[in-house]
């Protein structure tokens, strides 16, 4: 876990503990080639730059998952979204991390049906992790 932003305070240790617990709760196993997973918390500008470079979209986004195990999270986007969903910011950040893990485990959200399934699975996973 690397916190490369200062836009939103994040309790990194708590987030790390929850993510470690989530690994045993994933509905699908992660690929064997992933020996490490790196979560990087970035600011809005960095996220927009990476989004443009790798996905051709210059806007900021919430989470970007790379298949080699790096997951970029933007807590500032999480803060804006959390308010709209009535969630705590740290729960929204955790949700983005779980979303990235689910991508690594083979879930996708390209089609509407895939997105619906993935949203259901990540919401269930978030509830289980928070109950731990």
Number of E strands: 4
SS content category: alpha/beta
Widest β-sheet, arrangement of strands: 1-2-4-3
The helix count comes to 5
Residue stretches low in confidence (pLDDT < 50, at least 5 long) are none
CATH fold-type name = Collagenase (Catalytic Domain)
Mean pLDDT: 95
Multimerization state: single chain
Q: Report on the biggest sheet.
A: 4 strands, mixed
The shape, in one word, is globular
Could you name the CATH class? Alpha Beta
Radius of gyration: 14 Å
Order of helices and strands: EHEHEEHHH
Residue share in β-strands: 5-15%
CATH architecture: 3-Layer(aba) Sandwich
How many structural domains are formed by the residues? 1
CATH homologous superfamily assignment: Metalloproteases ("zincins"), catalytic domain
Distance between the termini: 20 Å
Helix content: 40-55%
Textual characterization of the structure:
The chain is of the alpha/beta class. The chain contains 5 helices and 4 strands; from the N terminus they run βαβαββααα. A 4-stranded mixed β-sheet has the order 1-2-4-3, with helices on one face. Strand 1, helix 1 and strand 2 form a beta-alpha-beta unit. The mean pLDDT is 95.
